[in-house]
Specification:
715 residues; alpha/beta; Rossmann fold; 3 domains; seven-stranded mixed β-sheet; 11 strands; 7% strand
């Protein structure tokens, strides 16, 4: 399904962040390129902080655009999705191709990687089929030099027929020259002569025959040669876009359809079958790219990236890949758990001091007790708990996660787990979305956008909740320390990290198992293939890590959590302070749930705490303590020893703790995550499936463990 006129014109950018683009005053430039070429770095370096993000209309693909000024001219730079091709195999390829062909831009800057130029030239040649206003940016020249690779930029420019500029965007080298080249192409100061790939006599003749009629229909609105190639290759999405965006139905034009039939008959006579046309086009593009690369790239007889290869031999090996991955993850969680304790306590102290002043303020205002309870004991205290518990771990975990991403390690994680996800009929990139879920499942759901296949994207979305987010860390850590680690004589933080790591391994196993079941039942299908490029290891950029982890992830997720938790605080307070027959609504609910909860190895108050903790998993333990102590507001005990004694007095055993940990790992997503799932899938059906699948899994596991322990006399 093609894009609309809105999404291929400036309409996609208008209204974003309250800003309106005036095309008559600003020059629009599309920024294209393969993944891992430094395209985002080029974009960030050119636009600085003048950036905006959103989604392409009707697509779960992020768009980013920003402004920069050069020689008294205003430019709007549109960062297209990173893609290896424009042959519409994925949503990203479709979005990029549609904007390049139909977007109201004055130039296209294509970012390539100097260390693997041959592969990147495939995209350059495809873009030059569409438009002649092209500038090629050969980025990562510093890395190429480090690896002994030399690129003859002048010769490359002559062969391609368009300006070529070498850059090292990370330190700003060559960006001024890139701006100059873009200006000259956009303003028509340079007349480019892009190289056209020769597809052979038979195919070229067919293209020219169709091109005559298409030029009449196109009326100069799109490239007739490129459209002829797409028509021959039966590229349905592109033809639909031409029809929907420009109102030109190439497939429905009778003269063109007749000519197409004749052309295909001639091609068959020459031994070129219809199903082979697409492969022929791709093959010739690849051969042309290889030929150009041989003429302009000199590897100096060395072995570029030898150190990277040696490291990868260890990190991606069958023997060490998985153990190292688990070890690194354990270290990250230990640092997160150990490091979050002090700032979390300080933040809680500060927020609860404010709570005391709010009580005084409401008292001076003469507010009724129930108003003070609702606003302060209910809403504010819930928000204080969520912020104090959620913010410090996220502020530590997300930078560490982004550090691994910036180093180039995360694609190695996907590589190590790809085999297992393929066995589960899921997508290898699900490993990356799963990793993001460790910080926050809502962020993990958003990360599922990187999966092209709708079926596999849904599997990743539904199963993302099986890995514990930092909101469930407090429950897992607390229970592991007071019921397991203490008895074993192991230090608290190390034991907590060890048990959380064990929970994660179990979560990964359940993720694979449920993914397999989904792919064999309601989401049947075969796993799709994808290109997984292992980028070179790079020096982390502190500024980028801070911006992406704090602004783009931590504050974004925290904002959604606060929005969901605020009204929940009101509901919790009302239930705890509204009595029927001398018993609170909360206690009534717990008594109603108790028989079923006992079958699961829990009790009614535990299950009620999970239900009321739906807005944010962080408040499950405080709600449970409030229920056990019959308090009207959420409280925290002074020590883990007091908490353990309270639980033991309420009849807890190790089975109760184990079942609660299991249910914490496997139950419905929090309100923030479900809200995100609804926005991402645009479907209540899949939102409910995402709710039911982990919940039913958790109930089943708890029943098996609880009843099994009772049969064996262990609990």
């Amino acid at each position: 399904m093609g894009l609309t006129k809105q999404s291929t014109s400036l309409g996609v950018l208008k209204g974003t962040a309250g800003v309106d683009i005036k095309s008559c005053e600003e020059i629009v430039v599309a920024l294209a390129g393969n993944p891992n070429t430094g395209k985002s770095t080029v974009f960030n370096s050119l636009t600085g902080l003048k950036q905006h993000t959103g989604n392409w209309p009707g697509k779960t693909v992020t768009n980013a655009w920003g402004r920069y000024r050069h020689r008294d001219k205003e430019y709007v730079l549109v960062d297209l999705p990173g893609t290896y091709s424009l042959l519409a195999n994925s949503v990203e390829e479709q979005v990029a191709g549609d904007f390049i062909c139909f977007g109201e831009h004055r130039a296209v800057a294509v970012v390539t990687d100097a260390t693997c130029l041959e592969r990147n030239l495939n995209l350059v040649l495809q873009i030059m089929e569409i438009t002649d206003r092209v500038v090629v940016c050969v980025n990562l020249m510093d890395e190429a030099a480090r690896k002994g690779i030399k690129v003859d930029l002048e010769r490359l420019s002559r062969l391609l027929g368009v300006p070529v500029v070498g850059t090292s965007a990370r330190d700003g080298s060559g960006l001024l020259q890139l701006k100059d080249a873009i200006e000259k192409v956009a303003c028509g100061e340079i007349k480019t002569a892009p190289l056209k790939v020769d597809y052979g006599q038979a195919l070229e003749g067919a293209v020219k025959e169709l091109e005559k009629r298409i030029k009449v229909l196109a009326e100069g609105r799109f490239n007739a040669r490129w459209a002829a190639l797409r028509l021959l290759a039966e590229d349905g999405p592109v033809l639909e876009t031409i029809k929907g965006c420009l109102g030109t139905d190439l497939a429905g034009d009778s003269p063109l359809r007749q000519r197409l039939s004749e052309v295909r008959s001639n091609l068959v006579k020459q031994g070129l079958m219809p199903e082979e046309l697409r492969d022929r086009v791709v093959s010739e593009i690849v051969k042309t790219a290889e030929g150009i690369a041989r003429e302009v790239v000199d590897v100096g007889g060395g072995a570029p990236g030898r150190l990277d290869y040696r490291i990868d031999e260890v990190l991606t090996s069958r023997a060490f890949g998985i153990p190292i991955m688990v070890l690194l993850l354990g270290v990250v969680f230990w640092i997160t758990i150990q490091g979050a304790n002090i700032p979390s306590a300080l933040l809680a102290d500060g927020l609860f001091k404010i709570e005391g002043r709010l009580y005084v303020l409401f008292d001076r205002m003469g507010a009724p007790g129930w108003v003070t309870g609702l606003m302060v004991s209910g809403m504010y205290r819930t928000l204080a708990w969520v912020v104090s518990v959620m913010l410090p771990p996220m502020a530590i975990f997300f930078p560490l996660f982004t550090l691994l991403e910036d180093l180039g390690y995360l694609p190695r994680v996907a590589f190590n787990l790809d085999h297992y996800f393929k066995k589960a009929c899921a997508h290898g990139k699900q490993a990356l979305t799963m990793c993001m879920g460790f910080g926050c499942n809502a962020a993990g759901v958003i990360a599922c956008r990187i999966i092209d296949s709708p079926r596999e994207r849904l599997i990743a979305t539904i199963t993302n909740n099986f890995v514990p987010c930092n909101g469930r860390f407090p429950t897992l850590i607390t229970l592991s320390v007071i019921f397991s680690a203490g008895a074993a004589g192991i230090s608290g933080s190390f034991a907590a990290a060890l048990y959380v790591l064990a929970a994660i391994v179990l979560g990964v196993f359940i993720t694979l198992l449920v993914s397999k079941l989904l792919s064999k039942t309601i989401l049947k299908g075969l796993p799709s293939s994808f290109t997984l490029e292992l980028p070179p290891y790079r020096k982390p950029r502190v500024g980028r890590i801070i911006v992406r982890s704090i602004l783009d992830r931590t504050l974004f997720v925290l904002g959604r959590a606060v929005a969901v938790a605020a009204p929940a605080g009101l509901v919790i307070w009302v239930m705890a302070n509204t009595a029927i027959g001398g018993v609170s609504l909360l206690a009534h609910g717990a008594r109603l749930l108790d028989p079923f909860a006992r079958i699961m190895g829990l009790d009614g108050y535990i299950l009620m705490a999970f239900i009321l903790g739906f807005p944010a998993n962080e408040i499950v333990i405080p709600i449970l303590i409030m229920s056990y102590t019959a308090g009207g507001t959420m409280v925290e005990l002074d020590s883990l020893a007091e908490m353990k004694q309270l639980f033991v007095d309420r009849g807890w055993t190790w089975v109760t703790a184990a079942c609660m940990m299991l249910f914490s790992l496997n139950h419905w997503p929090c309100g923030t995550t479900l809200w995100t799932i609804r926005k991402e899938t645009q479907s209540w059906k899949w939102t409910w499936v995402s709710f039911l699948v982990p919940t039913l899994t958790g109930i089943l596991l708890c029943i098996i463990v609880a009843q099994g322990a009772r049969l064996l006399g262990l609990g």
